[in-house]
Amino acid sequence: MNQVDVIVIGAGAAGLFCAAEAGKRGRNALVLDHAKKVGRKILMSGGGRCNFTNMYASPENFLSDNPHYCKSALSRYTQWDFVALVEQYGIKYHEKTLGQWFCDDSAKQIVDLLLGECDKANVKVQTRTEILRIEKTGVGFKLTTTQGDYECESLVVATGGLSMPKLGASPFGYQIAEQFGLSIKPTRAALVPFTLHDKDKDVLADLSGISVNASASCNHTTFNENILFTHRGLSGPAVLQISSFWEPGQKVDFDLYPNGELLNELKQKQQSQPDAQLSTVLSHLFPKRFVQTAIDYFQLKNKPLKQYQGKQLQQVADTFHHWQLQPNGTEGYRTAEVTLGGVDTDLLSSKTMMAKDVEGLFFIGEVVDVTGWLGGYNFQWAWSSGWVAGQEV
Description:
- The chain is α+β, with helices and mostly antiparallel strands.
- The protein has a seven-stranded antiparallel beta sheet.
- The relative contact order is 0.20.
- The model has no long low-confidence stretch (mean pLDDT about 95).
């Protein structure tokens, strides 16, 4: 029987960080993961450069049935704390947009940082280990695995959610929670592209690869970034963001010219270039291929601006400012960046991440019902929740 102080299940961002923090306190910590490699989701994040946090990270950037739950952890280990660690390792980074911090070089630098922290704290990281059984003992927990049996005082579940099953995602963390009497808030794919009904897809699929600046609104929430047309539907930052707030069957409102008044632009051109076709004028404001498809899709008449009378230009402008689209669904967990929902936070201590009714059992990271916006927020939750648990296990 192998005995350690702490076992962390899951060698991702939250798990590795938590184990390193525990090790720094002199705790004998072991990380177990069923995958061949650690940090696979980190390695592919941010296009391979890892958007490791956001300078504007605050509780307002997170979704949870209990919006107050994340406040303690985020205030105790902040984005500035993690940036200081990044700088300590000499990792060069840059802000891309909206406070998003990326590695200049590679996401592998963040994995190396985490493994470096574990190494300094004498934490053992063991891959290719499947956990077959978990039992509560008088002093902690006993784990039966494909690599032998282990006993520990503290058990940390950092198994992530259901997003990206190709990277090893599974419901294992939820199953552990339910085994010990903790309930799970309903889960669904978040930060995920929309799929479209055939009537929309048949037309808009021709725009695959085209990106347009837009605002997306649903359920009293609006994001203003790019949308990307794909052969399956809609993606891009604004779509991924609003997908976390959208419910099946609802419509999403898109403003395709969010930073100006399209009517004013059209009226000015009507005065200065009355013979110009509507498509010509719009092509100075939007990608040309988008304009031709949009005119057909929105059933607009392409004629010289001087022929538009009364409120006709207003109607054209309104069409672009108020495009209501009802998605068919989403691409699901296959491409979702995170999982909405998870272990009920009402059953966890916000100060320690420990289950209130199960001494020594902790849940951190994505497995918990705390989901960040797109832009480094979910990594910050991994660091903050992992750090907090690391001080207690």
